[in-house]
């Protein structure tokens, strides 16, 4: 038997703030190796980035290979003084486990390891694997994407995958994420001509031009949403001029927007749309707009089908309730895995993730362990149902 609570505590006690591993993967490996998992540590270091440790662990050599994906890195605790206990102390108070990573997502990693241990008490009909990265909360270049490249090069395949992100609304198993919207950043630079505020006719102030563009784009609706996705959104995150002088109108104004887009859009179409709006405004008002985009993540969707039904039924078996299928929230590493196989996210409640006093009810970790066990049992029992 593997105790998910003790393992979650041991993981939380490693201060593995991205890109540091701080012994977290050693802890996990020490739990998995005795169960028979072949553990491969993968250290990646793309140019200009800090090296990151990852772990791929597999047991069994025949298909299907059911994979659990997750991460052991965490976001910084912020000011530790604000916490009720040491953010890396893994203290249990009033039936809650406190610490950075308790919700996002060391407890889920521990829960899956415990579920796997339980499942391995009977013969395994196929293979089970864990793909655990130390670069989910960071730039994500030396993490899941790099591990998947390594796997592809080795001919290592996974057939179905669940990601243990904190995706539940209130209780483990109440929600399965079957997709996520994509995310892209757009930087606007509007150039005019600097001048004296007493002679505005001799200058071209970029502020009203950019303000017009900003308000036009902020009002536009991108779509009405789809059967599976919320509507796409464009949200401005900054508008900067940085001019302290009250008698000078500036030469340049800048703004940044973040677009969360569903699968009705491709990033290049969104960029074209933004550029067209900028051209219209500068044609009317003058100035020159420079627009740069950076695509953080493409949207993904695992269409409801045999795999999501298997997950829903298994969760119902474990909790007595059917989960909701959802595509809300930010991006996750499932965006990389969707290129390999059907993927969905099943985890704890994310109510306290990234916050001070991040915590999760001990009973919820136990419930998630039961859910993962139920999923493994259903998966390996139903070769035709997948
Ligand atoms: Zn996470």
Structure report:
The chain is an alpha+beta fold and 386 residues long. It has nine helices and 19 strands. The strands form six sheets. A six-stranded mixed beta sheet has the order 1-2-6-3-7-18, sandwiched between helices. Strands 12-14-10-15 form a four-stranded antiparallel beta sheet, covered by helices on one side. A three-stranded antiparallel beta sheet has the order 4-5-19. Strand 4 (92-93) and strand 5 (96-98) form a beta hairpin. Helix 7 (306-319) crosses helix 9 (362-381). It is elongated and about 80 Å long. The two termini are 28 Å apart. Zinc ion is lined by residues 71, 104-105, 136, 165.
What is the element layout, followed by pairings?
Layout: H1 4-12, H2 24-32, E1 38-44, E2 52-59, E3 65-71, E4 92-93, E5 96-98, H3 102-119, E6 127-133, H4 144-154, E7 160-163, E8 175-177, E9 179-180, E10 182-191, E11 195-196, H5 206-219, E12 233-240, E13 248-249, E14 252-261, H6 267-285, E15 288-297, E16 300-301, H7 306-319, E17 324-326, H8 334-337, E18 343-345, E19 359-361, H9 362-381
Parallel strand pairs: 3-6, 3-7, 7-18, 8-17
Antiparallel strand pairs: 1-2, 2-6, 4-5, 5-19, 9-16, 10-14, 10-15, 11-13, 12-14
This protein binds zinc ion (ZN).
């Amino acid at each position: 038997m593997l105790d998910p609570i003790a393992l979650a505590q041991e993981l939380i006690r490693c201060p593995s703030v991205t890109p540091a591993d701080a012994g977290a993967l050693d802890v996990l490996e020490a739990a998995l190796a005795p169960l028979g998992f072949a553990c491969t540590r993968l250290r990646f270091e793309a140019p200009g980035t800090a090296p990151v440790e990852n772990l791929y662990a597999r047991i069994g050599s025949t298909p299907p290979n059911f994979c659990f994906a997750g991460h052991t890195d965490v976001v910084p605790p912020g000011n530790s003084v604000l916490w009720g206990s040491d953010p890396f102390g893994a203290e249990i108070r009033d039936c809650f486990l406190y610490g950075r990573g308790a919700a996002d997502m060391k407890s889920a990693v521990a829960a899956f390891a415990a579920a796997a241990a339980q499942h391995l008490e009977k013969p395994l009909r196929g293979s089970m694997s864990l793909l655990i990265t130390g670069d989910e909360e960071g730039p994500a270049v030396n993490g899941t994407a790099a591990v998947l490249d390594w796997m592809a090069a080795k001919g290592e395949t996974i057939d179905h995958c669940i990601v243990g992100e904190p995706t539940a609304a209130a209780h483990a198993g109440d929600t399965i994420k079957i997709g996520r919207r994509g995310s892209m950043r757009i930087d606007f630079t509007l150039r005019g001509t600097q001048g004296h505020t007493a002679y505005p006719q001799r200058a071209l102030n970029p502020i009203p031009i950019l303000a017009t563009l900003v308000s036009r784009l902020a009002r536009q609706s991108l779509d009405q949403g789809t059967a599976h996705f919320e509507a796409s959104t464009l949200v401005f995150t900054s508008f900067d001029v940085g001019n302290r002088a009250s008698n000078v109108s500036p030469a340049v104004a800048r703004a940044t927007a973040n677009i969360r887009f569903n699968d009705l859009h491709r990033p290049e179409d969104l960029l074209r749309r933004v550029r067209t709006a900028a051209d219209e405004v500068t044609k009317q008002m003058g100035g020159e707009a420079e627009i740069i985009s950076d695509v953080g993540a493409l949207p993904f969707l695992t269409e409801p089908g045999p795999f999501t039904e298997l997950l829903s039924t298994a969760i119902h078996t474990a909790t007595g309730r059917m989960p909701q299928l959802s595509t809300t929230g930010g991006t996750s590493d499932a965006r990389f895995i969707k290129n390999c196989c059907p993927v969905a996210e099943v985890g704890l409640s994310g109510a306290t993730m990234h916050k001070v006093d991040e915590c999760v009810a001990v009973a919820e970790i136990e419930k998630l362990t039961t859910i993962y066990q139920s999923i493994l049992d259903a998966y390996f029992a139903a070769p035709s149902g997948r």
